[in-house]
Amino acid sequence: MRKIGIIGGTGFTRMKQLEIIHREVVNTPYGEASAPLTHGRLGNLELLFLPRHGSGHNIPPHRINYRANIWAMKELGVEQIIGFATVGGITQPPQAMVIPDQLIDYSWSREQTFFDGEDGQVSHVDFTEPFCGELRQILTNAALGAGIDIVTEGVYGVTQGPRLETAAEINRMQADGCDVVGMTALPEAALAREKGLCYATCAIVVNWAAGKGDGAITQELIDAHLEIGTASIGSLLQHIK
Ligand code: HPA
User: Fold this and answer.
1) Is 158 in the pocket of ligand 1 (CB under 6 A)?
2) Ligand 1 atom closest to Cα of 165?
3) Rounded to the nearest whole angstrom, what is the distance from the C-alpha of residue 85 to the centroid of ligand 1?
4) What is the DSSP secondary structure assignment for residue 54, as one 8-state letter?
5) Where are the alpha helices (DSSP H) in the chain?
6) Which of 14, 37, 147, 222 has its CA 20 to 30 A from that of 53?
C-alpha cells in the first residue's frame, strides 16, 4: 500500500474521515514540523496528515517551517504529497477547485532550499514543471469520480502575506498569467522536488482576489466558501485510487 502525504491548509487542520493509527513527533535538522504527523487510513489508502498552519491554526504562511515539514514527510516514507490550499480567485470564481500546473513566486525571505551550500553541495533542481503530472492526474480522476467540477490547470501566484493583496498587485499578477493567488505553494513544491517527492496542489478558491469581486474581502465570505470547499476535499480524498 503506498503512503500519501496530505498537507492541510486553512480550514483543514483535522481530517475527520481519517482512521487514526498514531501520531508521531519528528525531530528534523531544521527544527519542528508544524505539528505531530498523523498516520492513518482512509479506505485503501495509507495517509500521513500534517496541518501546515499547526494543529491550532496559529502559524502564518511566512512563518511555516516548510523545510521541517517536507523533511519529516520524506523521513516517514511518503513518496507523494498533496498540498491542499485555500486561494483567492483571479480568473476562477469562489468555490472552484483548481489543480494548478504552474507557479509564480512573489514571496520573499523564506527558507526555500535544502541546498544551502552548507555541506559543500550546490544543486539546481529542474522546476520547469513544478507539480507532479502523475499526481495531478490522480487528483483529476478522483474529482471526476466524486462528481466534483475541477479546473485541471492554472497558474498559482504565491504572495508573502499574511496581508491580502492590493487591487493593483492582483492586476499585475493577472497580467503575468496568474489564475489564483495563495501564500503557501512555495517553497513547499520546490522543497518537495529537491527531496525527489511527487507533489501536487489542490487549491480551493474561497474569495475573489482583491479588486475582482464586490467590495472588501471579509472573513465571513471566506468562511462560507471554505465550509463548502472542505466538504469537497473530503469526498475527493475518498475517490483517490
Ligand atoms: N490572497 C492570497 N491568499 C489567499 C487569498 C487571497 O485572496 N484567499 C485565500 N488565500
Assistant:
1) no
2) 1
3) 9
4) T
5) 66-75, 133-146, 167-176, 185-194, 219-238
6) 147
**Is residue 68 within 6 Å of ligand 1 at its C-beta?**
no
CB distance 92 to ligand 1 below 6 Å? no
Question: Three cell numbers at 28?
Answer: 528534523
Query: Radius of gyration over alpha carbons of the chain, in Å?
Result: 17
Q: Summarize pLDDT for 97-140 with one digit per residue, the tens.
A: 999 999 999 999 999 999 988 777 778 999 999 999 999 999 99
Crossing angle of helices 185-194 and 66-75, in 10° steps, is: 40
Segments making up each domain of the chain, as ranges: 3-238
Cβ–ligand 1 distance for 201 under 6 Å, the answer: no
Interacting residues of 87 by C-beta distance below 8 A, sequence separation 6+: 98, 156, 180, 181, 182, 203, 204, 205, 206
Q: How far apart are CA 123 and CA 195, in angstroms?
A: 12
83 lines ligand 1 (CB under 6 A): no
Written in H, E and C, the secondary structure of 60-85 is CHHHCCHHHHHHHHHHCCCCEEEEEE
Could you tell me which residues come within 8 angstroms of residue 197 by beta carbon, excluding any fewer than 6 positions away? 5, 70, 73, 74, 78, 79, 80, 81
Residue 231 in this model has a pLDDT that exceeds 90: no
- 31 vs 234 pLDDT, higher one: 31
pLDDT per position as a tens digit, 28-56: 999 999 999 999 998 888 999 999 999 99
Verify whether ligand 1 is closer than 6 Å to residue 182 (CB atom). yes
pTM for the whole structure = 0.96
What architecture is domain 3-238? 3-Layer(aba) Sandwich (3.40)
CA atoms within 13 A on the CB side of 34: 31
